[in-house]
Design a protein that fits this description.
The complex is a heterodimer.
Chain A lengths: L5 H26 L4 H13 L2 H26 L7 H18 L5 H30 L3 H23 L22 H5 L15 H18 L1 H11 L1 H6 L4 H28 L10 H11 L4 H24 L5 H16 L1 H19 L1
Helix pairs in contact in A: 1-14, 1-15, 2-3, 2-13, 3-8, 3-11, 3-12, 3-13, 4-5, 4-6, 4-11, 4-12, 5-6, 5-11, 8-9, 8-11, 8-13, 9-11, 12-13, 12-14, 13-14, 14-15
Chain B lengths: L2 H30 L7 H19 L2 H25 L4 H24 L22 H4 L5 H9 L4 H19 L1 H11 L1 H6 L4 H27 L11 H11 L4 H20 L3 E3 L2 E3 L1 H17 L20
Antiparallel strand pairs in B: 1-2
Helix pairs in contact in B: 1-6, 1-7, 1-10, 1-11, 1-12, 2-3, 2-4, 2-10, 2-11, 3-4, 3-10, 7-8, 7-12, 8-10, 11-12, 11-13, 12-13
Classes of the chains: A mainly alpha, B mainly alpha.
Chain lengths: ~375, ~325
């Protein structure tokens, strides 16, 4: 028998963890001499108070959905993919090559192939750590960390020496052609009579991200492959006994994970910057860890957690703009969320389990 | 390349290898006891900030060092609570500590000094000054050996010598003392240690705290000896290079020194030369940046000598009930 009802595990524990993180964050804000209540008001106003704010919140959320799903899929296979950052960087390279090398007639066609390119590049970057884990037992956490750094060096080289346009000092690619411009939410919503901020970067890739959430849900819970992935994650000897090949499953799970992380580039490179710059990912790969932990590795949880972090990101930017609180506050909140929902999970869980057991004993 | 250039290059290798070496030995203690630590980076960063801050405010670099070690120990304690007491995921705890340090240092620095996340520059008393070894001046004229002694070995700060002395000390503690034997045992087979009536939790906390101490010195070295003050994200991935060196060295102290010197040399070369011409082929500077990580992956892959971590690494110990 489970020690706790399912709703407590899925809803109560994340909420308590979030509350603890929020209380500590408030203390941090107090500690640097600012008013937490005013800060929250400003964040809500800045991130959710206008379609402009929403546009940024959803833009960030799109990034985090992809990277959060990437971490979640790997986690179902019992793997900790900390390399989302590097995979997303390489995904950006894939998008840039697709957009720059082929003259696309229409953005929709370009979007499909850019997503494909991003996915393939991201998956390829995850393939080597996956292979080394599956075949040689090299710890995937360490190899994916190393691959993040290697990705940064590769991208630096490519942007400085190969893709930088003649005469430009900036380590970035040329601007993508006008034809591959992705419609923003403003352009999508205007025909149906909803006015949305013109300057916010949220774009059609939000729908791709939501589609990816749906895809991951179908994959993990409604296909034989998903069953194999989850079996492997629960118990490798069990999976092996059931005739599931660990090597094959690890490879497939990591390739999907890498592809999802890579596809983030459709949003930030193609949808927003419209060229590939250095450090285009801005740490979104790491936020995926917090998002997946918070969302309990479920696509719907990831969706909600991504929007929460999108809100924090945009709200944090507003705070930095109007108060003396630097943007790094978000990094602290992110750290606290990872700490409480991930590392200190048992600290919240153990007392709760005792309470539920006591209540149950009292009843019977 | 003339002789003096080589000496200068090696001299800067020693300087750059020092923080790597301290962090690498820190990781060695922790991982030998079965606690994975990818939070070396965060602990160093926190220590760098607090050492620079206290050194700047008091003007005393030794107080700065103490503050750095103290702040690093706090994070080490957090890692211990999460991964030993609450048996949480050690990797996730490490990730959290890295972000916590990256965020808190800038937040506090901005609040206290309003200089965009840096601390005021340190002057004479606030920094570790170079120490001249005995009669370094006198022998500098001697060919070959003279410059090696006076330029390469002499003229480093005290922390550099501490770091290199920590290598034999680590070896001695781990392989020649009862504590070291138990510490290694707890990383391989904690149940056996428990059966012998020795506290697994106590040993692991001790290892994590030694790790915090060494990371603290590493961070203080960065901010008060290598550079004069704290700047945002000044560790710049050194914690991860140290982690790479640890794997490269297969969790052994003397090899760790070799690996850190190698990676230090790569950094020194990348710092001094932008692109290297080697027989008509240009090696871009980015290749030098990526080399430590590539080498580590190759070692991990087991094609060139297999790296096998301590057996109980990463697994929380659950005492039988």
């Amino acid at each position: 028998m489970d020690k706790m009802p399912k709703w407590a595990d899925v809803v109560l524990i994340p909420l308590i963890s979030l509350l603890l993180a929020a209380i500590l964050s408030a203390l941090v804000i107090l500690g640097i001499g600012e008013d937490p209540v005013a800060a929250v008001k400003l964040m809500v106003q800045g991130a959710l108070g206008s379609t402009y704010g929403w546009g940024y919140t959803l833009y960030y959320a799109t990034n985090f959905m992809f990277t959060g799903l990437a971490v979640a899929v790997a986690a179902h296979a019992g793997l900790f993919n900390i390399g989302g950052e590097g995979q997303a960087m390489l995904g950006g390279l894939g998008v840039a090559l697709v957009c720059l090398l082929i003259p696309w007639p229409h953005w929709s066609l370009a979007l499909i192939f850019a997503a494909l390119g991003a996915g393939i590049f991201g998956a390829a970057w995850a393939a080597i750590p996956a292979y080394l884990q599956a075949k040689r037992g090299s710890h995937i956490v360490i190899t994916t960390i190393m691959f993040n750094f290697i990705a940064a060096a590769v991208l630096n080289y490519v942007l400085v020496n190969v893709l930088r346009p003649e005469g430009s000092m900036d380590p970035a690619t040329a601007r993508f052609p006008e034809a591959v411009h992705l419609p923003s939410l403003h352009e999508l919503l205007a025909p149906i009579g909803i006015s949305f901020s013109k300057s916010a970067p949220a774009n059609v890739s939000l729908l791709v991200a939501v589609g990816a959430c749906l895809f991951v849900w179908l994959l993990v819970w409604r296909t034989p492959l998903g069953y194999e992935i989850r079996s492997l994650g629960k118990s490798e000897p069990g999976a092996r006994y059931a005739g599931i090949s660990p090597v094959r499953t690890v490879m497939i799970a990591m390739l999907i994970s890498g592809a999802l992380a890579g596809m983030m580039a459709v949003n930030n490179v193609m949808g927003e910057a419209e060229r590939l710059v250095l450090n285009a990912t801005e740490g979104a790969g790491f936020i995926g860890i917090a998002v997946a932990l918070m969302g309990r590795n479920h696509p719907f949880g990831v969706f909600l957690a991504a929007i929460l972090f999108g809100f924090l990101y945009q709200g944090g930017a507003e705070l930095a703009l109007w108060t003396s609180i630097p943007r790094e506050l978000i990094v602290v909140i992110q750290a606290l969320v990872i700490l409480f929902t991930g590392a200190l999970d048992n600290m919240v869980r153990m007392p709760l389990e005792k309470i539920f057991l006591a209540v149950r004993k009292g009843r019977s | 390349m003339d002789f003096l250039t080589i000496i200068q290059l090696l001299d800067s290798t020693v300087r750059l290898a020092t923080p790597l070496l301290l962090a690498c030995l820190a990781g060695l203690f922790s991982e030998r006891a079965g606690i994975f630590d990818i939070g070396l980076e965060g602990k160093m960063l926190m220590a760098a900030f607090f050492s620079a801050t206290v050194a700047a405010v008091t003007g005393n670099v030794w107080l700065g060092l103490l503050a750095g070690i103290g702040s690093s120990l706090v994070l080490a304690g957090l890692h211990g609570v999460a991964s030993i007491t609450f048996r949480g995921n050690q990797l996730i705890s490490g990730v959290a500590i890295n972000f916590l340090a990256a965020g808190m240092t800038v937040l506090i620095a901005q609040d206290w000094f309003q200089q965009g996340g840096r601390t005021p520059s340190l002057f004479s008393g606030g920094r570790f000054t170079p120490i001249d070894l005995p009669s370094a001046e006198n022998v500098s004229g001697v060919p070959v050996l003279g410059p090696i002694y006076s330029e390469l070995l002499s003229g480093h700060s005290i922390l550099v010598y501490i770091a290199f002395l920590a290598v034999p000390a680590t070896w001695w503690v781990l392989f020649r003392t009862r504590f070291g034997l138990r510490l290694r045992a707890v990383g391989e087979n904690p149940a056996a240690v428990d059966t012998a009536g020795v506290s697994v939790v106590g040993l692991r906390y001790a290892a994590v705290m030694i790790c915090g101490l060494l990371c603290g010195i590493a961070g203080a070295y960065l901010a008060t000896a290598l550079q004069a003050g704290f700047v945002k994200d000044m560790t710049a991935g050194r914690g991860f290079i140290a982690l790479a060196a640890l794997i490269f060295a297969k969790w052994r102290p003397w090899h760790a020194m070799g690996a850190c010197l190698l990676f230090g040399l790569l950094q020194a070369v990348a710092l001094r030369f932008q692109n290297i011409e080697l027989g008509g082929i240009t090696i871009p500077v980015q290749a030098m940046d990526a080399l430590p990580y590539v080498l580590t992956v190759v070692i991990l892959a087991g094609f060139v000598g297999r790296a096998i971590p301590p057996r109980a690494g990463g697994e929380p110990y659950v005492k039988e009930r």
